[in-house]
Specification:
There is one protein chain. By secondary structure, this protein is of the alpha+beta class. The protein has 3 domains: 117 residues, no CATH class; 185 residues, Jelly Rolls, CATH 2.60.120; 71 residues, Phage tail protein beta-alpha-beta fold, CATH 3.55.50. Helices cover 28% and strands 31% of the residues. The strands form 3 sheets. The protein has a 19-stranded mixed sheet that branches. Strands 21-24-23 form a 3-stranded mixed sheet, with helices on one face. It has a two-stranded antiparallel ribbon with strand order 20-22. Helix 1 runs antiparallel to helix 2 and helix 2 crosses helix 5. The two termini are 52 Å apart.
């Protein structure tokens, strides 16, 4: 009997016995039929199916409980029954399982590729180094377009742009007058500022820092932040460093900390990495936090919590730290960096969380695919809009 005839007998038998408790589904039957194309090519397959009566042996296989991946034999059948062909049956079952899994992933990959082609045909490049410096006289300098070297002077202060994307202030003469400057980043931009006292500030996308060029206001080094910034403050016990943001002040002498004060966030988050800071509200409420702690100002008070500081400052180091982060919070960060608008389907819950870590140097599609891999949401990019659905 030919192998084709054997296969036909097997398939006919299984199909005719669906009503009698056959354990294979219609989908599995289809996969089994497609497997024939593979085994037909081997001489071993011919010998294997010639070696036993298909109908009888399939009944025995089902009785032994091996028709779904070679499980343990049924208690009603002795374990040493059919030893001569049990190994062959097990091997055949494994082949069917492997083929089924391969077919499943092949179909899944094809569906994923089709989705990617449609969803990410309008990909978006990552943000870049860039910012705008606004001088006291109102002049605006786009740093991405400015040549490296000195770009402006203000009284006794020189402002220079470095090749690696930093704006550096140097004191060259008398600094009696207080001229106000603002460094601002648009969506999709980030920049580093070195103030006259050697303090260093990283500005995240869609943020700004306003300060006097001599950094001396009533014997206080005072700046105003909108958005997000990471600060490494030079020590100067005679002049505290104060960061104002949305009705809050953070006062330090010398330390490393991060402030997230975006207007679309639920709270101002001040995270301490080194030293100590005092967070004060306009209501005169204040709290001192320690390294590894975060002060959350939600307009009703200050809550202090312990956090993973590396996740908080991942943006400064060129990454998105998404593990355990609320999806919509993560998408706000992503939207600012890629300068896109996020549109949610009503079915998307506010409680969903993301996972993983990924570089901000990737294109938008790569970041979204990482989030998609959780199976909770799907994305589609159309122009400068990202649509989120289930």
């Amino acid at each position: 009997m030919s192998i084709d005839k054997n296969w036909e007998m097997l398939l006919d038998y299984l199909e005719s016995n669906q009503e009698k408790g056959n354990v294979l589904s219609n989908e599995e039957l289809q996969r089994l039929a497609e497997l024939r194309a593979l085994v037909d090519e081997t001489s071993d397959a011919f010998e294997l199916y010639q070696s036993f009566n298909i109908e009888q042996k399939w009944i025995e296989l089902r009785a032994l409980g091996v028709s779904r991946g070679f499980t343990q034999p049924s208690p009603i059948v002795k374990q040493n029954t059919f030893k001569p062909w049990l190994r062959i049956a097990a091997a055949a079952a494994i082949v069917v399982m492997l083929f089924g899994a391969g077919l499943f992933y092949f179909n899944l990959n094809n569906k994923q590729k089709k989705h990617d082609q449609l969803a990410y045909k309008n990909d978006v490049s990552p943000g870049k180094l860039g910012a705008t410096l606004t001088l006291a006289n109102g002049k605006k300098i786009k740093l991405a377009d400015a040549a490296n070297g000195e770009i402006a002077t203000d009284g006794g202060i020189s402002m220079s742009k470095t090749a690696d994307g930093q704006l550096v202030y140097l004191i060259k003469g008398s600094t009696e007058s207080e001229h106000i400057n603002t460094l601002s980043t648009a969506k999709g931009e980030t920049y580093v500022l070195i103030l006259p006292d050697k303090s260093k500030v990283w500005l995240n996308a869609a943020s700004s820092l306003t300060y006097s060029t001599n950094l001396n206001e009533r014997k206080t080094r005072r700046v105003k932040l909108e958005g997000e910034g990471y600060f490494e403050i030079a020590k100067d016990r005679s002049r505290p460093f104060v960061v104002e943001s949305k009705g809050q002040e953070v006062e330090v002498l010398g330390t490393h900390f991060n402030i997230n004060a975006y207007s679309d966030g639920p709270a101002i988050a001040t995270t301490l990495l080194e030293g100590s800071v005092k967070v004060s509200l306009e209501t005169n409420l204040s709290k001192i936090i320690k390294p590894g702690e975060q002060a959350l100002n939600n307009d009703h008070g200050i809550d202090v919590v312990n956090v993973d500081v590396e996740r908080i400052t991942a943006w400064k180091d060129g990454g998105f730290a998404l593990s355990g982060k609320n999806l919509k919070t993560a998408m706000r960060e992503i939207a600012r960096w890629y300068n896109v608008e996020v549109v949610y389907d009503p079915s998307i819950s506010d409680e969903l969380e993301t996972g993983g870590w990924i570089s901000r140097s990737n294109k938008l599609s790569t970041v979204l695919k990482l989030i998609e891999s959780s199976g909770q949401v799907r994305f589609k990019i159309e122009g400068k809009k990202v649509y989120v659905s289930k």
